[in-house]
Amino acid sequence: MTRAGTGHQYWSPFGPEKQERTKELGKAVYQALYEPPIDEGPVRTLDLPVAGKGYNALPFVFDLVNQVNRVSVPDGKRKSEPGLPDETDGAETIKYLESTSKLVERITGDTPGSFGLHPVVYFYSRTGAFQPSAFFAASRFIEMIIFGGKVREYLAARAPFELFLLNHKEHVSLTVHKFGAGERSVPQLVLYFQTVMAKFQNGKSDADILAKFAEDPNFQYLLPAKPPLLRGSSEDSEKKTGFNRGTKSATFIGAAIAGAPKCGLCGAMVHKNSMHIDHKQRVREGGGNEFTNAQITHPICDSMKN
Ligand SMILES: [Zn+2]
């Protein structure tokens, strides 16, 4: 996590070993969030980087460090400045970066505990825009699942839960619209994820959940459930210029999702960065290495397989 572009390395007073560790952690977090990079223009791949294009990578990563470490940012400091303590030896910075890196490893990547959250499901709008609030909310939601010891329950309902998120992308956009960008929408989005998840865990359907939103005062703003927040092409200028970037992205994403690789164990979408190839029948139980005994899984599903 260098202060990219400024040439300033805030760990410079630290000893060489700690400098090295800080760089290493920062690099790992950055790569996990921004690889593979994407080009300009409409979205044409589902292999999107977890945290968008990285225009605002630095403030975003600082916000993430703050969220993970529950650092309260002192008044008067820019919101994106890290609330990291003034220190000379670097130990605190490393501690903060380590907990951030640990959370990022649970969200994405291919280490065994990784949930491999698909960015298209959790972090991007229907029109292909990265939504920081959704990223912070989903990571907090996953943290709560882990600390609550509810991983198996989550995995059991993951496929219908994620399908609901995909089918109702406008809910996240409406929440951000009502509660505000960044941190302000996070508690409500966490409540939204938890409410939807609980319903699927109780065997409810999409229609049941929408009916619940219709009568719950906490979710009135989602109603009437609007079609995707896509700008119509009724304006003259748009008629002339054709489909805008968001509409093109939404069209690609909608078409690509159907054919996206799914986890052989939970049935939910698998992202390029978080893909395991698993033996359907374990080697120790006589399973071979032939193609027919292989399946794509999330790292977490693979590691929690009974
Ligand atoms: Zn899975």
Tell me about this structure:
The structure is a single chain. It is built from 12 helices and 2 strands, in the order αααααααααααββα. The chain has helices at about 15-35, 55-70, 90-105, 120, 130-145, 150-165, 170-180, 185-200, 205-215, 235-240, 245-255, 300-305; strands spanning about 275-280, 295. It is an all-alpha fold and about 300 residues long. The model has no long low-confidence stretch (mean pLDDT about 90). It starts with 15 loop residues before the first helix and ends with a helix. A two-stranded antiparallel ribbon has the order 1-2. The chain has one domain (about 15-305). Bound molecules: zinc ion. Zinc ion binds near residues 265, 268 and 297.
Structural class determined from secondary elements: mainly alpha
Percentage of residues in helical conformation: 40-55%
Number of beta strands: 2
Radius of gyration: 21 Å
Domain count, please report it: 1
Sheet with most strands: strand arrangement: 1-2
Give the SSE string: HHHHHHHHHHHEEH
Largest sheet: 2 strands, antiparallel
Total helical elements: 12
- Give the rounded overall mean pLDDT: 88
Q: Which stretches are poorly predicted, pLDDT < 50 over at least 5 residues?
A: none
| End-to-end separation | 38 Å
The fraction of residues assigned to DSSP E strands is under 5%
Oligomer: single chain
